[in-house]
Design brief:
Layout lengths: L1 H12 L7 E4 L3 H15 L5 E4 L2 H9 L15 E4 L3 E2 L5 E2 L6 H9 L4 E6 L12 E5 L4 H14 L6 E3 L15 E5 L7 H9 L4 E4 L1 E2 L5 E6 L2 E6 L2
Parallel strand pairs: 1-2, 1-3, 3-6, 6-12
Antiparallel strand pairs: 4-5, 5-11, 7-9, 7-10, 8-9, 12-13
Helix pairs in contact: 1-2
Function: Catalyzes the reversible conversion of ribose-5-phosphate to ribulose 5-phosphate.
EC number: 5.3.1.6
Enzyme class: isomerase
């Protein structure tokens, strides 16, 4: 499967042209794309990239990929990233790697977003994978209770957990925030849920990426499938 993921990354790379400004995703599949991009840069391709996490930034620097940020670049041509779930409309759940806030900022600043993933990430309806919700550390108890009430109203009768709490060391994002993981099983109204979650003052962002992805390259045992948003 790793070889197929790399092939999906290679197909996404065919859409990159010299002179582009790129967003670089985070995660095991996006890592393949960054590796392959590094080979192109070494061969002379001229790109300027914004990484979506410190992990990706470190990888890119090690490959001598030129980096910038969104303080100096107002728009990007393309972002290539992974996903935890992809539905038939190319709506996504992202955030397993903890970079969802930066991933969403970078994707929203791009003319196009392409996702690379393996076939296990395809779902008929979002919600099988826990939905990450990035929250401020201040007032965590109040925020957690407010999130729980919203989730209950949208049919999430499963666990709401603070990432890392079970291991005795809570997970911190690159921005110093916490992540609540909400288990739905099925999200029937993602747009409404998105609005409700973002109305909670302590919620920084969530992992629903709705209407942002234009194309997905999905690795399967039979090759790479190309999905496009209609």
């Amino acid at each position: 499967m790793e070889a197929l993921k790399r092939k999906a990354a290679a197909m996404a790379l065919t859409e990159v042209r010299s002179g582009m400004r790129l967003g670089l995703g985070t995660g095991s599949t996006a890592r393949h794309f960054v590796d392959l991009l590094g080979e192109k840069v070494a061969a002379g391709m001229d790109v300027l990239c914004v990484p979506t996490s410190e992990v990706t930034a470190t990888q890119a620097r090690g490959l001598n990929i030129p980096l910038s940020d969104l303080d100096h670049l107002d728009r990007l041509d393309l972002t290539v990233d992974g996903a935890d779930e992809i539905d038939p409309a190319l709506n996504l759940i992202k955030g397993a790697g903890g970079a969802l806030l930066r991933e969403k900022i970078v994707a929203a600043s791009s003319d196009r977003m392409i996702v690379i993933a393996d076939q296990s990430k395809r779902v008929a309806e979002l919600g099988r994978f826990p939905l990450p919700i990035e929250v401020n550390r201040f007032g965590l108890g109040a925020t957690r209770n407010a999130v729980a009430r919203v989730l209950a109203a949208y049919g999430a009768d499963k666990a709401l957990t603070l990432r890392g709490e079970d291991k005795g060391a809570v997970y911190l994002t690159d921005g110093g925030h916490l992540i609540l993981d909400a288990c739905f099983g099925r999200i029937s109204q993602p747009e409404a849920l998105s609005r409700e979650l973002l109305s909670i003052p302590g919620v920084v962002q969530h992992g629903l990426f709705l209407g942002m992805c234009s194309k997905a390259y999905v690795a399967t045992p039979n090759g790479v499938e190309v999905l496009e948003r209609q």
